[in-house]
Design goal:
- The longest helix has 26 residues, at 2-27.
- The mean pLDDT is 92.
- By secondary structure, the chain is of the alpha/beta class.
- The protein has a single domain, classed as UDP N-Acetylglucosamine Acyltransferase, domain 1 (3 Solenoid), CATH 2.160.10.10.
- It contains 1 helix and 19 strands.
- Strands 2-4-7-10-13-16-18-19 form an 8-stranded mixed β-sheet. Strands 1-3-6-9-12-15 form a 6-stranded parallel β-sheet, with no helix packed on it. It has a 5-stranded parallel β-sheet with strand order 5-8-11-14-17, with no helix packed on it.
Length: 191
């Protein structure tokens, strides 16, 4: 009985704290579903926050960074219902990033749809970013800690990306990936 009460109070506390953490981004246009939990220290792109859509029952870990260039009103980020993202995440879009429903994204994962403009006699600190290629992660994917998802990658449903993998190309549904660059280890058989 006492444990049940503590769980109820803990849940109520988390909902209240998340409400206040999301208050300013929502005022600026952030679209969220019901029961979205946001950890402390998330940096929001306040100029483009209206281009972010978060589904129901989503959990965002602490100290995340969501970035979209101020001068690009076309960039979009979508996070599907039931998805959980761990601490210290990076989601950076200059085109579009779509994360499906019921995905589990571990801590220190970076999902980036663009790069910096670089080359001879180009200063990367002031050169800006490339136009970007959309990233799509379908429903039910698991991305292990420290993984990096590069521009233009599409992961089919139920993919598994092992820890510290660098995914530079697309893979079909049910792929198990590992390495840098990530390679297909096997396909998960449907049951």
């Amino acid at each position: 009985m006492f444990v049940k009460l503590l769980r109820h109070l803990h849940g109520a506390w988390n909902r209240t704290v998340s409400f206040f953490r999301l208050f300013t981004p929502r005022l600026l246009g952030l679209r969220t579903g019901r029961n979205v939990h946001a950890g402390g220290g998330i940096e929001w792109p306040l100029g483009n926050v209206g281009n972010i859509q978060i589904g129901d029952n989503v959990s965002l870990g602490k100290h995340g960074w969501i970035y979209m260039p101020l001068n690009n009103r076309q960039a979009k980020i979508q996070i599907g219902s039931g998805t959980a993202i761990g601490n210290d995440f990076v989601i950076s879009a200059n085109n579009g990033i779509r994360i499906g429903n019921d995905c589990l994204i571990s801590y220190r994962v970076s999902i980036i749809d663009h790069s910096h403009v670089t080359g001879w006699e180009i200063k990367p600190t002031t050169s800006g970013v490339t136009p970007g290629k959309p990233v799509k992660i379908d429903d039910g994917c698991f991305i292990g800690c420290g993984a990096v998802i590069h521009p233009g990658v599409e992961l089919g449903s139920n993919c598994i990306v092992e820890a510290n993998s660098v995914v530079m190309r697309s893979f079909p549904a049910g792929s198990v990936l590992s390495g840098s660059p990530a390679r297909l280890l096997r396909l998960i058989a449907k049951t």
